[in-house]
From TrEMBL:
NCBIfam families assigned: aminoacetone oxidase family FAD-binding enzyme
Lineage, uppermost ranks: Bacteria, Bacillati, Bacillota, Clostridia, Halanaerobiales
Keywords: FAD, Flavoprotein
Entry coiled-coil feature ranges: none
One protein family per Pfam: HI0933_like
Annotated organism of origin: Halonatronomonas betaini
Domain RsdA/BaiN/AoA(So)-like insert residues, every copy: 196-356
Protein name as it appears in the record: Aminoacetone oxidase family FAD-binding enzyme
Domain called RsdA/BaiN/AoA(So)-like Rossmann fold-like: residue spans: 5-408
Cofactor: FAD
Length: 411
């Protein structure tokens, strides 16, 4: 006979992990998921391959990969670290591998394997699976937690309730912000929430000519009009689409922007390994070797094919000028273009395209040691519904697993 009734709201990675930790011989655990299946968003992760964690140590994640409320995560990440995630999934039969950028994926390259392993383990552990259950509100009686109320007004009794309802992005996956309403009902403050890890919209027409171009190993700097210092500066991968930038660099840079978006400019360094002087010297050498080749045909060693006509046009150097006639001033201007290709920001993508919600239930009134509300005894939070938010690289799923684990632990 179970001594404690535990309800988990939300069957994403945080909720499933919370349910698994909460289930002991002494507890009855029910997981309520409004969709007909679990982990709808989890299936989309990592382009369907699921970048489920990283090989970062907890301290590194806190120091360099979480950009909101990072210190709050100490207990969670040290209680259940990336190494624990690796071991945990191995034990469920999911082999993992490390890829570039210390990103960790299942060897199968299938996010469904990760999702299915969690669901199977929940079934095996005796967790009561309630799909198609939409929680409307918390069941509170004079400030005491009694359980939850479904959208059909049915009440479900619980001594402990873990809210793991996710954020507000990709709402068709089920994460529609209900968790914030539940938290607000209990008196919690909500920070933001805003869209993050979202494509950046730009004004520049030339992007239409190179739509789909993936640039690897370039540098992106984000500036606001009132600051000469970059707000974000990183080397990595960028995808240029029609009047939009996406890929890891753009998604991360979006985390440093707020309205009005037309206050921002993005500068791309297409040759980050060379200084300005080195690039000018290289251009001089290459153009000399090209002899009387047309300028427009002399950039093959420097740029991907799609970008060459764009740079030729932006350079204002006549496309049919002979390479060996390009003078020092023109070379300097061209080098400047390659080192600082500037784009004007007009906005960010929509809620349907943002990878993550920045902000959420404020950590001020949550105990970091067990993720329990300081206002309502027995009420816990886990996953993206909470304020902490990280960059790409498997850290957000790791945070979902770590906070799910900690919220589920009996203390
Ligand atoms: C396209 C995309 C790709 C991504 N790729 C990665 C990646 O590779 N690596 C990474 O680390 N992160 C990635 N993320 C982020 C990651 O998916 C999220 O951080 C993570 O899913 C959050 O887990 P969660 O359990 O907190 O919330 P969610 O996964 O959003 O799950 C919340 C669940 O709660 C349910 N729910 C909501 N309200 C209710 C209610 N009232 N009643 C019952 N159920 C409810 C929802 O239906 C949903 O199933 C990606 C996100 C997107 C959108």
């Amino acid at each position: 006979m179970a001594n404690k009734n535990i309800i988990v709201i939300g069957g994403g990675p945080a909720g499933m992990m919370a349910a698994l930790t909460a289930k002991t011989s002494d507890t009855r655990v029910r997981i309520l998921e409004k969709n007909n299946n679990f982990g709808k968003k989890l299936l989309l992760t990592g382009d369907g391959r699921c970048n489920l964690t990283s090989t970062y140590e907890p301290g590194e994640i806190i120091d360099s990969q979480v950009f909101m409320a990072n210190n709050f995560l100490y207990s969670a990440l040290y209680s259940f670290s990336p190494a624990d995630t690796w071991r945990f999934f191995n034990e469920l039969g999911v082999e993992l591998k490390e890829e570039r950028g210390r990103r960790v994926y299942p060897v199968s390259d299938r996010s469904s394997q990760v999702r299915d392993a969690l669901v199977e383990e929940m079934k095996r552990s005796g967790i009561e699976i309630n799909t198609g259950y939409n929680v409307k509100s918390l069941w509170l009686d004079k400030g005491d937690l009694k359980g939850v109320i479904l959208d059909n007004d049915k009440k479900i009794n619980g001594d402990k309730v873990i809210v793991a309802t996710g954020g507000i992005t990709y709402p068709e996956t089920g994460s529609d912000g209900t968790g914030y309403k539940l938290a607000a009902m209990a008196g919690h403050e909500i920070v933001g929430p805003s869209l993050a890890l979202v494509p950046i919209k730009v004004r520049n027409n030339w992007t239409e000519k190179v739509a789909g171009l993936k640039l690897k190993n370039i540098e992106l700097k984000l500036f606001s009009r009132d600051s000469g210092k970059p707000l974000y500066h990183q080397r990595g991968e960028l995808i240029i689409e029609k009047k939009r930038l996406t890929g890891a660099l753009a998604l991360e840079a979006s985390c440093f922007m707020e309205e009005p978006y037309n206050n921002y400019r993005v500068k791309l360094d297409l040759k980050p390994a060379l200084t300005m002087a080195e690039l000018e010297a290289r251009l001089e050498r290459e153009f000399k070797e090209m002899g009387n080749k047309f300028f427009k045909n002399s950039l093959d060693n420097l740029l991907p094919a799609w970008l060459r006509p764009v740079i030729v046009k932006l350079s204002s150097i006549g496309s049919t000028k002979n390479a060996n006639q390009i003078n020092a001033e023109e070379r300097k201007h061209l080098a400047g273009l390659l080192k600082e290709l500037t784009l004007s920001v007009t906005g960010i993508g929509s809620q349907d395209e943002a990878i993550i919600t920045a902000g959420g239930v404020s950590v001020d009134l949550i105990d970091p040691a067990n993720l329990e509300s300081k206002l309502i005894s027995g009420l816990h939070f886990a996953g993206e519904v909470l304020e902490p938010t990280a960059f790409t690289g498997g850290h957000n799923l790791q945070i979902a697993f770590s906070t799910g684990y900690l919220a589920g632990l009996e203390k």
